[in-house]
Amino acid sequence: MESSDVELDLQRSVQAVLRELSAQAPALQSNQGMWRWSLHKKIERDPGKSPALVRILLRELEKAESEDARHVIIPLLHTLMYVLTKATGITEELHRRTYAFCTRLLTLPAPYCTIALDCAIRLKTETAVPGTLYQRLVIAEQNLTSELYPYRERVFLFVDPELVSPSVCSALLLEIEAAQGQQTPEACMRHVVSHALQAALGEACHAGALQKKLLASSRPALERYFHAVVTAVEQMAREPSPSREGHLERLEEIYCSLLGPAAAARGRCGGDPLQDRPLSVPLPSPRITFHLWTDEEQLWKELVLFLRPQTQLRLSVDLEALDLQGLLPDWELARASMLSTDSGIERDLPLGADDLLEPGSPEAERAGLQRKGGIKKRVWPADIVMPGSWDGPPGLHRRTGRPSGDGELLPGISRLHTARVLVLGDDRMLGRLARAYRNLRKRETQRFCLTPRLSLQLYYIPLLAPETSAASRRSELGELAAFLGRADPWYESIVNTLCPTIHKLAEMPLSLDTSQTVDPFILDAITYYVRMGTQPVYFQIYMVKIFSGDLSQDPAEDIFLTELKVKIQDSKFPKDSFSARRRGVAEGPGAELSICYQKALLSHRTREVTASLRATGLVLKTLPASDSEASGPTHCTPTAAPETDHTCLKVSVTEIVKTSNLAGRSFSVVTNTFRTANIQIQSQDRRLLTLLLDKDSCRTYRDVVRFEVAPCPEPCSRTQKSKVLGLGSHEQEMERNKAKAKPLLIPINTFSGIVQ
């Protein structure tokens, strides 16, 4: 195919992606997500098309910049970076043009400047040292041993068998196993060596001969070549001013040692163009482990096993008795102070053999008067106790050539591991994930063993029942996915369209032959999402305190993420167990409720409202229901600095209004809606309530007479509590207010966060 035909074909594919983002054409909705996948597959099958595609994407990005078509900038930029990571033969001039474009985007508001900064930092290294992005990605995702780049990543795919059919679970598991069965460590090392040499040497690399040599090499020889290439790339990338020419010289030496000086010389002088054309070097999919969600402690257990060395997998049945050897320091490292048991006077301390002082000496006299501090304080960073998120304090969440969340949270302890937790399901699954996330945070306030070493990234792919998804994509069980789709158009195109495809895969006959080469669309879409989805959207978790009609029972506490629904039971509680019904309250449908809440105002002032009304039910929702509400302050990206008073619930009350006329007494139904940060509701006429959390029938509370809802606070550690106890009453109150003002937010990663 001639170059003009190649560019025309690629241009048509790029235009199809743009039409998918810009238009609401019904003919394109059935193929959403496929255009991006087919575009990348064309490059995989013929790597020589990569420079042409980079030029086309750059041209479209510059056009979108000049026309201020911002809705296509982030999708095109993600597509371009994905091509640059996988491709070889990209010229320095194309790298510099892409870098210059990213620097121009830094003047735009978030999330454009955030993503552009991330891309610019990675491109600066890739321009000087070609192949760095590919090498680091493969080493981290495949857990290849490298002293110069010791980072590790893993994708944990969680599916709840109560919410997802067995056929879907089996289909996903077989697709993952079929693809990863071909990704041996030897194959991945060959890919790294081949990609690095082709990216650096370009047309001077005899790709066919190199591939034959690597396939014929033994495991020790292959490891030697692999470590030589990794050392050359990493050492050059870490220099203050990396030189492309110096990098080329180092890799030419490795290339000559592989093929011999004669073969290397033939490659530089030009050989058979059909044999020397660049070969496709696949980018292996990340290591994905498939897990059936059984209980809330499973997430913490899997993360601990990920951090532990493989030689220390001695797991106790009791999770509290987990052998955390290798994960120290535990609570002892995180404690802010150590209490001394001595008197604090040096002469009262026992002297060792080296500490004997001569009587009457000046040292002995000073020792009798000198006092040692009773508290030995350790100096830690101010936010060491429990960071606001697993990626550190709110700010620009970006990747700087390493897995996100790297760096030191504690002195001397690097966060070398990145756990990408991907859940499939509907809003009920997200509610269970929120409970597990809160339990994880509470456990960390006591043990503090995962946070310093692990960057936790959460991802979500909606998977609704077939009849539900066919009726409406924004169905009742897919509200959070619909919100993410409105906030991030690329998430809507790539992720929200996977549900029908997954169900089609489950209906196909199973093939147990994993030796055949597979080209899985679903696995590729998942891989693209977990690699490029680095911008989190934060969701407030709400706590509900539940009081039962049985006064002998203590109040129960639970949390919810998307919805709390209140229904009126037909039964009543005994008169002597609660206050008697108020005189003058007429019987009728529903129940008499007392509602007390703080009204959400634009001025952020506190205004308490108390009302008594008869209602047949209530619904408390945390998600905005329309595009006009989507830009509200309920959910925000890290750059928005979320505040507690910005968080609000949308409460819908189905009220019964009594009317009297000549025909007699009648009742009408009216739905009232208001916003609040917290609310208290109590039954007044002995009618019991039923609470349903996150639309999950397994999380139902019956025989409720009163409940309170408020934003769930960040778990408080023992260190914070000990600090509060050592302060005065006024200072204690100030510290408690600070702790209350920090809500617990759960981050769900998308491609761009919220696009305003």
Automatic annotation (TrEMBL):
It comes from the Eukaryota. It comes from Moschus moschiferus. GO terms for cellular component: phosphatidylinositol 3-kinase complex, class IB. This is Phosphoinositide-3-kinase regulatory subunit 6. One of its GO terms (molecular function) is 1-phosphatidylinositol-3-kinase regulator activity. GO terms for biological process: G protein-coupled receptor signaling pathway; positive regulation of angiogenesis; positive regulation of T cell differentiation; regulation of natural killer cell mediated cytotoxicity.
